[in-house]
Structures are given as structure tokens and as C-alpha cells.
């Protein structure tokens, strides 16, 4: 049976702060919430559009070098990927693939970007990223419990 809430994370746990997504998924899974499923992968691919089937809400979560804050939250919508390849898609392109496959709009989707600093191969999680993970986790728990929760 498909759970109504999907938390989809991606990143490479062997690259320091790029592990933020998978660590967030581990923390959420440890809560054993009955309506929440966590999926994690190294990167987003076209096949992940099928994971959106039957969901009421979806949270995409990943590490980001582009933000200075502990985390940033935004609603996302389908956007056609302009690249020639489906290798390493962004969440917007996954949503567009869902529209293309299913012929209907995807469930409401939110993107959570957690600030990362050190993405070197073999590096551990930085102290800043650990703090960002804790802040993001609190936000995610609130988002799970109240879909109207305001943005960060």
C-alpha cells in the first residue's frame, strides 16, 4: 500500500555534506510514522516520477551549496528539462515526467534544500551541516503534521 506522504532525498553519503538528504531520511524513518515513506538515491532519474503515484504530498530534500541559511523551502511545479539527457534530473523535471506519464498534475510537492559546505569525497559531515540537519528535521516534522505550515 502506498503511503500518502513521500519524502524523497538524494545525494552521495561518501561526499561529506552531500549526505544531508540520506541522513534526513534515516532520521525520519527512525520515527516510524505510519503515513510517511522515505526513499533515497544518489540522483534523481526519470523513473522516480513513478514514485509519486498515489501520494497526497511529496517532499524532495537535498544538500545545497547555493544557500547560506540552514535550509530553504519552496513549492515546486513541473518544468520540462532542457537537457538532452535524463541523467541527473532536478525535481521540477521529475514532476514534468510524472505529468507526461500520468497525464495529470502531480501531488503538491515541496523542495527542501539544506545548506552544505564540504562536499569532498571521503569527508565527514561538517559541524555546520549537522546543525542545518537538526533545524531542517524540526521543520520536516512540522510539515508532516501540518501541510499548511508556513515556509521557513
Strand content: 15-25%
Taken from the alpha-carbon principal axes, the silhouette is globular
**Can you tell me the residue ranges where pLDDT is under 50 for at least 5 consecutive residues?**
none
Helix/strand/pairing category: alpha/beta
Order of helices and strands: EHEEEHEH
Q: Span between N and C termini? A: 31 Å
- The mean pLDDT is 91
What is the spatial order of strands in the main beta sheet? 2-1-3-5-4
Largest sheet report: 5 strands, mixed
**Number of distinct beta strands:** 5
Separate helix tally: 3
Radius of gyration: 15 Å
> Helical content, roughly?
25-40%
Structure description:
- This protein is 28% helix and 22% strand.
- The chain has helices at 20-30, 91-102, 127-145, and strands at 5-10, 36-41, 57-64, 71-76, 109-115.
- The protein has three helices and five strands, in the order βαβββαβα.
- Helix 1 (20-30) links the parallel strand 1 (5-10) and strand 2.
- A five-stranded mixed β-sheet has the order 2-1-3-5-4, with helices on one face.
- The mean pLDDT is 91.
- The protein has 152 residues and is α/β, with parallel strands linked by helices.
- Helix 1 (20-30) packs across helix 3 (127-145).
- It is globular, with a radius of gyration of 15 Å.
Give a topology summary.
Blueprint (H helix, E strand, L loop, with lengths): L4 E6 L9 H11 L5 E6 L15 E8 L6 E6 L14 H12 L6 E7 L11 H19 L7
Amino acid at each position: 500500500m502506498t503511503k500518502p506522504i513521500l519524502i524523497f532525498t538524494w545525494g552521495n553519503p561518501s561526499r561529506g555534506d552531500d549526505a544531508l538528504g540520506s541522513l534526513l531520511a534515516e532520521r525520519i524513518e527512525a520515527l516510524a510514522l505510519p503515513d510517511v515513506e522515505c526513499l533515497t538515491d544518489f540522483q534523481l532519474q526519470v523513473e522516480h516520477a513513478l514514485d509519486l503515484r498515489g501520494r497526497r504530498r511529496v517532499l524532495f530534500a537535498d544538500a545545497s551549496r547555493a544557500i547560506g541559511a540552514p535550509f530553504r523551502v519552496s513549492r515546486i511545479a513541473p518544468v520540462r528539462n532542457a537537457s538532452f539527457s535524463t541523467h541527473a534530473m532536478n525535481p521540477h523535471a521529475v514532476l514534468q515526467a510524472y505529468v507526461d506519464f500520468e497525464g495529470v498534475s502531480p501531488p503538491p510537492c515541496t523542495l527542501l534544500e539544506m545548506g552544505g559546505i564540504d562536499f569532498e569525497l571521503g569527508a565527514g559531515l561538517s559541524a555546520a551541516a549537522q546543525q542545518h540537519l537538526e533545524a531542517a528535521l524540526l521543520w520536516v516534522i512540522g510539515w508532516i503534521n501540518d501541510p499548511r505550515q508556513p515556509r521557513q
